[in-house]
Structures are given as structure tokens and as C-alpha cells.
Write a structure and sequence with these properties.
The structure holds 2 protein chains of 2 kinds. By secondary structure, chain A is of the alpha/beta class. Chain A is built from 9 helices and 9 strands. In chain A, a hairpin with a 1-residue loop joins strand 8 and strand 9. In chain B, helix 1 crosses helix 2, helix 7 packs across helix 9 and helix 10 packs parallel to helix 12. The termini of chain B are far apart. At the A-B interface, strand 5 of A face helix 7 and helix 8 of B.
């Protein structure tokens, strides 16, 4: 994986619901191996952007081009819509990460079992294997989901507010995993609200408020002027909005 | 005592046939019911059971009480309603429960109207409550084929089915199997309901699916065990229902469903996994 190649390219991308844009004319690229934060006020289109990259939301306009296949993306949605009451063990939840290898019918080989145990160890959930997921706390659940991400072994990892409502110790542990992914030259894109964490850990930042406000080195992007600009975003949509005539890709 | 259990089946062929029929229904319906329950689609099963009525009724209108005509009609109507309700909920803001409710009410009214166009009240009762004591060879063959196909299909679909219940977004991000899995599963539901329909009628067919499944939830929190328990509950209720109907001269279909209901209530009270008794007297809290 060369450091100069592009992992994800946006060509004048507009994403939204109905005809209303949530991400408006985003143009640029995420180089492979970058560790990038997506920052912006609530309703700025951050989650929408990730959905667009995964492909669950089709762009209203423009194109999103991936370097690899869409299956090379591991995606952790915001407060994952997991049915926590479902009778499933932590082990089985984590083992789902092997889907791309085992698919519909494939068995789980001994080597895979070792990998599952390693992933559980990496997130500090040894001893939780047989526990039903309904008994996990919020932080433990997030640890289990990170273990699943580890197993997915994907070149591109998307995290949507992974540390919201998670205690400091768990956040620190999981952030170590994020750094590890970065060291392994994976592309990591994370939606975050903690600007101090972004400054400490994420070299690249996209500041977005429906329109992209700034994109590049974290230090430059998170300037007071840019943050003020982002905060001025109009939240309510205009019921009489005109059709957008900016040129599409 | 043993004689009371054994004799009716040894003596009467129609009892043997009925027993084979309910065992087949339990084998397919039990696991399907477990997945319906885990997917929070229990009422969907109910709705679908009603939805097959107009199809079976059209078959009846054209060919009388004919097995193939009513089966094909039922399958056809069930699939149409399942797909239509599924599409409406996927592409509009109406949730699946609401769109199913709309379709099944329509179907039930339509079905009863069609049957009464030609038939007598006896025929209507037959359609609504089934004829478990009059299963012929071809019906038994149909029931057995349906349960075989169901068990095989569930074995193949097991992984995506579980994933779709627990974490549909994850499944969508790693595979395209989600929508086909859902549709095939709905197909299995319809198939089993049509099978159950011949024995237990449109109103009670779903009982052999949901009552054993609901009972099994109170005994185990492991999906595989749940399916096994629910099959066992289905077979036991079939057996005891038939005996009850034989000795007490009760209608067989309702007796079977009542037996299943009794096992459900018993499980609700006694079950190790969150039964009422264990909730009321859980014992003193543990150290850690």
C-alpha cells in the first residue's frame, strides 16, 4: 500500500435525504493510510458522509470512488443499531468480523479461533466470551465492537462517534487500537467531537458544516476562524430552497 | 394410563395420520417461529396466516376442497402480501407492522367473502379451523416436504438470518445477502403457514409456530436450543392435543393449540430464563 495512493475520492459529492443536501459539494481525496478526523456541529452531515462512503446512501450528485472493493471497508455506525436483547454471546458477536473470510457457510478454522482470542485480548474482554451481549455495559459493548473491527482486517476503517458516552479508560484503550491501525498503514476516518483528542491523535481533519469548511492538517483546520464559520451553519432547511445550479462532476 | 396414550393411535388410522401431520408441522414451524420471535415479527406470522386465506379461497371456489388448488392459491396470496408489505415498508414511511395489518385485514375479509360465495358454513369452518383428523396421503406428503425444505433452508440461511436480527447494518456493510435472506425467510413462513392451514385452518396455523417458540424462550437463551425446545413443545402439544380431543371429544385443532398454550403458560411461570416464579423469588443477590 503506497502512501501516495488515494483510498477514497470525492468528486463534487452531494449526499442527502429527499432532495435536501446534508453534505453539499464535497470535493477532494483521502490518501491511503491517513488518520483523519471528521469534525463539525450536530447535523453537519458527518454521519451522512460515512454512510455515503460505505454505500448505504447513494449520492444525490457526484461520485465517491473507492480504491478497493466496498467490502474492504469496516464500518462502526454511531450507537450501532444492535438488538442487545438478542440471545448472542460476546464470542459470536466478535466472530462476525470473520464474515468476509467465512461468508455464508464457511467454518471457523483453528487459526481463526486464535485470531478471535487475540482480538478479545486486545480489547481487554478475556473472560467475557460466553457472556450474552445483553449483559454488557456500554463501554464493554464498544470494546466488543472494536474486537469485531480488528477481525474484519479491513484496509479502510470508518468510525462514527466511537467514544461518545465511553469512559476515559476505555477511550484510551480503544484509541490505542486506532493508533495501531494507523501504524499498520490502514486508512482510518473517525467522526469525533472531542477537539483536544483530534489535535493530539489525528494528523488530518475535515471540518464540515454541510458545506466542507476546511480540510487538511489538523492544526490549520481547527483555527478559531474556521470553527466560528462552522458554527454559523444554518440548521433549519429553507422550505423554499431553489434548485442548486453549481456544476456537478 | 399408557394404554390411554397408546391405544387411540394403535387403533385408528386417522389418529396416526394426524400425529404424523402435527409432528411434521412442529418440525418446520418450531424453528421458523423462533426466528419470527427473535426478529420481533410474531404478529407478522399472524398477519400472514390470515393473508393466505383469499388465495386458498379462490382455489376452493374454482376446484372445491382440492389440495393442490388451495395450496397453490394460499402460497400465491401469502407471497403477494409478504412481498407487498415488505416493499411498502422498505420504500415508504409506513412501518412493516402497519402495512401488514392493512394487507391482512383486507385479505381476511376478502377470503371469508369468497368462501361464503359458494360454500356452506361447514366449508367455512373447515377453512378457518382445518381438518387435522382427515389428513390424506397427499396432504401428509405436502406437510413432510414443507418441513424438510424448511429445515434445510434454515441450515443454509442460519448465519445471515442471525446477523440480520442482531445487526442489520453490519450485515449490509459486509454482504448483499440481507434482502434475499429476508425474502426467502418470508417464503418459508408462508410455506409453513400453508401447510399448517390444511391441518389447523387459517386462524390456528400460526399457533403451532408462535406458541412453542414463545415457550422455548423461557427455558434457554441459546438459539439452537430454542429451536430444539420449540420443536419438542410442538410435538408434545400435538400429541396431547390429539389425545385430549379423542378422549374428551373436543375439536382437534383447538385442542392442539390449547395444549401448546398450556405449555406456554407453564413455561411463562416456571421457565428458568426469566419465568415469573424466578422473577418473584430470585433468591438473595450474589457476591459479584
Amino acid at each position: 500500500m503506497s502512501s501516495t495512493s488515494t483510498a477514497i475520492r470525492f468528486d463534487e459529492v452531494t449526499l442527502g435525504y429527499g432532495r435536501r443536501p446534508a453534505v453539499h459539494h464535497l470535493d477532494g481525496e483521502i490518501p491511503a493510510g491517513s488518520l483523519m478526523a471528521v469534525v463539525g456541529p450536530n447535523g453537519a452531515g458527518k454521519s451522512t458522509l460515512l454512510k455515503g462512503i460505505v454505500g448505504t446512501l447513494k449520492p444525490l450528485d457526484g461520485h465517491i470512488r473507492l480504491k478497493g472493493p466496498a467490502s474492504g471497508i469496516a464500518y462502526l455506525p454511531q450507537a450501532a443499531e444492535i438488538d442487545r436483547s438478542f440471545p448472542l454471546s460476546v464470542y459470536d458477536l466478535v466472530a462476525m468480523g470473520l464474515w468476509s473470510r467465512s461468508g455464508l457457510f464457511g467454518g471457523i478454522a483453528r487459526r481463526d479461533r486464535t485470531r478471535i482470542e487475540e482480538a478479545l485480548a486486545a480489547v481487554g474482554l478475556i473472560g467475557f466470551e460466553r457472556r450474552p451481549i445483553s449483559t454488557l455495559s456500554g463501554g464493554q459493548m464498544q470494546r466488543a465492537l472494536f474486537a469485531r473491527l480488528l477481525l474484519q482486517d479491513a484496509p479502510v476503517i470508518l468510525l462514527d462517534e466511537p467514544f461518545t458516552a465511553i469512559d476515559a479508560k476505555t477511550t484510551a484503550d480503544l484509541l490505542d487500537l486506532v493508533r495501531r491501525w494507523h501504524d499498520e498503514a490502514r486508512t482510518v476516518v473517525a467522526v469525533l467531537h472531542d477537539l483536544d483528542m483530534v489535535k493530539r491523535t489525528f494528523p488530518q481533519t475535515l471540518l464540515i458544516a454541510r458545506e466542507p469548511v476546511a480540510w487538511g492538517e489538523t492544526g490549520e483546520v481547527l483555527s478559531p476562524e474556521n470553527l466560528l464559520k462552522a458554527r454559523r451553519m444554518v440548521e433549519a432547511y429553507d422550505p423554499h430552497a431553489d434548485v442548486c445550479h453549481r456544476s456537478a462532476a | 394410563m399408557l394404554d390411554l396414550i397408546y391405544a387411540p393411535f394403535a387403533e385408528f388410522e386417522f389418529m396416526q395420520r394426524a400425529l404424523v401431520g402435527v409432528i411434521a408441522i412442529a418440525l418446520g414451524g418450531g424453528p421458523v417461529g423462533v426466528f419470527l420471535m427473535l426478529r420481533r415479527m410474531s404478529l407478522t406470522g399472524d398477519a400472514m396466516a390470515h393473508a393466505i386465506l383469499p388465495g386458498a379461497a379462490v382455489g376452493y371456489l374454482l376446484a372445491g376442497l382440492s389440495l393442490p388448488a388451495m395450496t397453490v392459491g394460499g402460497l400465491f396470496a401469502g407471497v403477494i402480501v409478504a412481498v407487498a408489505a415488505g416493499l411498502v415498508s422498505r420504500f415508504t414511511d409506513l412501518k412493516e407492522d402497519a402495512s401488514l395489518a392493512a394487507f391482512y385485514l383486507l385479505s381476511l375479509a376478502l377470503g371469508v367473502t369468497i368462501v361464503s360465495l359458494r360454500g356452506s358454513n361447514v366449508d367455512l369452518l373447515h377453512v378457518l379451523f382445518g381438518t387435522v383428523l382427515a389428513l390424506d396421503d397427499s396432504t401428509l406428503l405436502l406437510l413432510a416436504s414443507i418441513s424438510t425444505a424448511t429445515v434445510l433452508a434454515l441450515a443454509v440461511l442460519y448465519r445471515p438470518l442471525v446477523l440480520e436480527c442482531v445487526d442489520p447494518i453490519f450485515l449490509r456493510s459486509v454482504s448483499r445477502a440481507g434482502t434475499p435472506t429476508h425474502l426467502i425467510f418470508l417464503g418459508l413462513v408462508v410455506m409453513n403457514l400453508v401447510g399448517g392451514f390444511h391441518a389447523l385452518g387459517t386462524l390456528l396455523a400460526v399457533g403451532m409456530m408462535m406458541l412453542p417458540a414463545a415457550a422455548s424462550r423461557f427455558w434457554t437463551s441459546d438459539i439452537t436450543m430454542m429451536m430444539i425446545v420449540s420443536i419438542a413443545v410442538g410435538i408434545v402439544s400435538g400429541l396431547s392435543g390429539l389425545l385430549l380431543s379423542f378422549h374428551a371429544e373436543l375439536p382437534a385443532g383447538p385442542a392442539i393449540i390449547l395444549s401448546a398454550g398450556a405449555i406456554y403458560v407453564m413455561s411463562l411461570v416456571l421457565g428458568r430464563e426469566g419465568g415469573l416464579l424466578w422473577l418473584a423469588w430470585p433468591g438473595r443477590h450474589l457476591e459479584a
